[in-house]
Write a structure and sequence with these properties.
Its EC number is 2.7.13.3. By secondary structure, the chain is α+β, with helices and mostly antiparallel strands. 50% of the residues lie in helices and 19% in strands.
Length: 462
């Protein structure tokens, strides 16, 4: 019953309090005798304490004090009446302030409880999202204790390690990733956040190459290690096969260049041999006949067909390849204090090329520019890619002083070359193997090499 008096909005509570004050005043007026009923005003003061401010509570306390003094039958004197009124006022004011304090504390507690519930719900939702993320991740994610015992492993971890689902928990991770054993040897106070590549082993004993991103941390229950593991075996195999193919292609072209030189030399020797044979002075000489056989053998070796197959070419996104090139050469350019400027025209068409061979050509051209710029104080390298309407053109230009004898640039085994003189020769051969070309363009105080590429649509490929 009394609880209903304190419920409702401010207007309804004030209305109820007003009705109670009027009823108490009427009752106090109607009852004759020295029976003080002023204490009953505590009830409306308790009600208004929930909805009024401190100043408003003071006004109501004054009102209730006046009504108590006016309608009771007690005689008022300065000595007794003033002290009685003060006690009334303090009692009414204290009741209102007490209820107000209780109300504010209750509201704060409810708000705090609401915040706790909101945080709990947010934490639960975050945990659910994290669980979904971990379980749906294509990368293997494992959490272990300090001794290597697995606490949590997602579905990808079970697939990677060849363990049936839900059976990896409780096992020792060092059996599958032995390199993590070295992490546990360090002090527990040290924390690691790093990446490494190491050998892994599946449940059936098969080994694989693993890229491991791991971190260590401490909890109340002890040290923990969380690792994200990726199988790099396929990438490793692809890289090695690509490297072998690149080596074979380069070797084939290099041998072709050597064969060309041998063919020239053996042709000259053959002419001399024929001239001596026509003179007749060495007829019947066994050494002379053996020399003729050697010339024939050399010509046969030099005529072996070593053409590079072009079946490795495919459609290439040149803009993406140039971005990868920047990543590869950026450290060496910074080390040599070379300012590089890259300008790629927007909307370049796809090109037809062998991706590893094209990357090798670009790297060779930049390496040559770095070597040419080593003697300059102001070092600038410009790389520009554009479409001229028929071909995609990539220009590599520098201010390294230019080339003394441009006519010898693309010849193998040229005199004065930094190494064998095969770099530009092989680069041009690579380009021509998939329909491209490499040319030299002289510029003031520098050199410019122009790579010509065929757009993929013009080759009839989709």
């Amino acid at each position: 019953m009394f609880a209903a008096l304190f419920k409702g909005n401010k207007r309804s509570v004030l209305l109820k309090a007003g009705v109670m004050i009027a009823a108490i005043a009427l009752l106090d007026w109607r009852i004759v005798g020295e029976i003080p009923l002023g204490f009953l005003y505590l009830l409306p003061m308790l009600a208004i304490g929930f909805v009024l401010s401190p100043a408003e509570i003071c006004l109501f306390a004054v009102l209730c004090t006046l009504l108590s003094e006016v309608f009771d039958d007690l005689r008022w004197t300065l000595r007794t009446g003033l002290s009685r009124d003060v006690l009334y006022f303090v009692a009414f004011l204290g009741a209102g302030f007490y209820v107000r304090s209780v109300s504010l504390s209750r509201k704060a507690a409810l708000q705090h409880l609401h915040e706790i519930e909101s945080q709990r719900d947010a934490r639960r939702e975050a945990e659910e999202q994290l669980t979904i993320l971990i379980e749906s991740s294509p990368a293997a994610i494992v959490t272990t204790e300090a001794d290597g015992r697995v606490l949590m492993a997602n579905e990808a971890a079970h697939r990677l390690l060849g363990v049936p689902q839900k059976e990896l928990q409780g096992r020792i991770i060092y059996r599958y990733l032995p390199s993590l054993t070295n992490v546990s040897r360090y002090e527990a106070s040290q924390h690691f956040r790093t990446v490494m590549q190491a050998r892994g082993q599946r449940e059936d004993g098969e080994t694989f190459l693993a890229d491991i991103c791991f971190s260590t941390y401490r909890t109340n229950a002890g040290s923990r290690l969380t690792a994200m593991v990726l199988d790099a075996s396929e990438e490793f195999r692809t890289h090695e096969v690509s490297g072998l193919q690149q080596l074979l292609v380069g070797s084939r072209i290099a041998i072709g260049a050597v064969s060309h030189e041998i063919r020239n030399v053996s042709g000259a020797i053959g002419v001399v041999h024929q001239n001596l044979a026509h003179s007749g002075s060495l007829n019947g000489n066994k050494d002379f006949e053996a020399l003729g056989n050697l010339v024939v053998a050399l010509e046969r070796i030099a005529n072996v067909n070593l053409r590079q197959p072009s079946d490795q070419a495919s459609v290439i996104d040149l803009a993406a390849l140039l971005d990868e090139l920047k990543i590869v050469v950026a450290p060496s350019l910074q080390e040599e204090e070379i300012t590089s400027r890259w300008l790629t025209e927007a909307g370049l068409p796809l090109v037809w090329a062998d991706r590893p061979s094209l990357m090798q050509v670009f790297l060779n051209l930049i390496t040559n520019s770095v070597r040419a710029l080593s003697k300059n104080s102001d070092r600038v390298l410009n790389v520009t890619a554009k479409y001229d309407g028929t071909q995609v053109v990539v220009e590599f230009s520098d201010n390294g002083g230019g080339v003394v004898r441009p006519e010898d640039l693309f010849r193998p085994f040229q005199a004065g070359a930094a190494a064998t003189g095969l770099g530009l020769y092989l680069s041009r051969a690579f380009m021509r193997s998939f329909g491209g070309d490499l040319r030299y363009k002289p510029i003031p105080d520098g050199a410019c090499f122009v790579v010509h590429l065929t757009p993929a649509l013009s080759t009839g490929q989709e």
